[in-house]
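Batch job 17 of 40 flagged for manual review because the log was empty.
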Amino acid sequence: GLYAADRLIARAPACARVDVMEAMPAPFGLVRYGVAPDHQDTKNVQNRFNAVLGHERVRLLGNVALGADVSLEELQERYDAVVVATGTPNARALGVPGEHL
């Protein structure tokens, strides 16, 4: 979602605003909750995401779950465009030896 917000702000007219709805209380999904936080690439991504969220035309709405708190139909009625970027809440098993080590 934040990658999409970044691109939209960069390419949309100056009057466009972007609302980012996040199901978790804090943004960044797996960058925050699933990747080693001391990894340099992770820090770079977090810095970029912070810059996106700090943009005057971007607003973060946390604790908003699609399908529970708001429906896709409601979003389509209220916004000119909707991007659904849900990520994944769970790890995916690869089925390889040693994956549970």
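Reviewer: the log was empty due to a logging misconfiguration, but the result itself is present. The beta strands are 18-22, 58-62. Unflagging and moving on to job 18.
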